[in-house]
Sequence to fold (185 residues):
Amino acid sequence: MSKPRNSGPLTIEQEELAAMVALDLASPTEAAAAPKSVVKELREAAWLLGESLQPVAPPPSLKSRLMSRVAQFEQLKPIADVRRNEDYWAHSGVPGIDIKPLFNEKETGRSTYLVRMEPGARLPAHYHPDAEQCLVLKGDIAWGDIVYEEGDFIVMGKNTHHPEIHTVHGNVLLLISGHNEFDHA
Fold:
């Protein structure tokens, strides 16, 4: 594998990332960070390797296990299936705050989101027309002198006013609520 010109040798992490991108196993964010020329070479190598092999039928036991797993998924039929590498964050309309919608239950208006705040970001005071549950997955969130950190859980009641929220170090929050300030972001 040749290295990109003028960039020096690749690290093991860069090589592994390029391999994941070449096999379409990386998120869009990871793909953007991978060395493009190396990804292209690895894709070509994978294609050539695949073309050089003779097809082999899987053993009956493997095919049976695979078909069983497909049937289990079809039987379960999840109404939401968001994978960790599906990186579709959207800007919330508030500087430094992005959201990732996970699920919206149309019948009740209840939604589940991930909220990501950059260090120092502030969410203006707002009204909660419905109860809102918040789990701090990473970082911190605060209002006034009250600080919540990773693993803390907060529930704001229906028809409450929330003061300005801020974060010092940034965060990722799991938010479950009825109609809220992010519904139209």
About this structure: Confidence is low (pLDDT under 50) at residues 1-5. The longest helix spans residues 36-52. The chain has four helices and eleven strands. Residues 90-177 form a domain with the Jelly Rolls fold (CATH 2.60.120.10).
